[in-house]
Design a protein that fits this description.
237 residues, alpha/beta, Ribulose 1,5 Bisphosphate Carboxylase/Oxygenase
Length: 237
Amino acid sequence: MTTYGKKYAESINKIDKNSEYLPQEAIKLAKEITYANFDETVELHLRMGVDPRNASQQVRGVALLPHGLGKPIRVLVFAQGEAEKIASAAGADIVGSEDIVKKIEGGWLEFDIAIATPDMMGKVGKLGKILGRKGLMPNPKAGTVVVVDDLPRVIEDARKGRVEFKLDRTAIIHLPIGKISFETNKLLSNLTAVIEAIIKAKPASVKGQYIKSAFLTTTMSPGIKLDLRMVLALSAA
């Protein structure tokens, strides 16, 4: 039998396990049951109706959150020459090439998103094992390997609240949608942006129910089951 801490148990008791909550109701409930002494991250967890072993059914993409994630985003750009100047002018926090690669090889990882120009990927590729484990490896499919002309736009998007999503090996997508301190309508807007992006990323080979279930949770609190029909309706609103 699972034993919970007192505060966690109190939170569970406020959730009706037999109910599926409307998105706005779930957000309000998450605010009511939070008990941590820090600004918790609000997370969305989706069980997908796809086969994670099938290469043609991988779900991956980017969502731009209209209200961001509630924290400053440190942007690293792997670039050289003219691209380095453009990235710096566009507001990237760290810009460089081989010097940055060597720093990362030495254990430095003080950034939240990494962007690279195509000509840098030969050098960045050796960092695959380090950055891949942290979800920081630049990738064309995730929109973080970009041509020089697109650097200003991508850097700006990263600062606004650019969130990557990717299907895991258990066919679940986990991603943040903001902080518990956000106003309810802002979290709802971020949730809507995420759902729209995930629906847009639906592989053509997927048949049947694409999203099977959805839960809202915070860093420390239990999950709240969402009314899937109303969650999907967000993208059509």
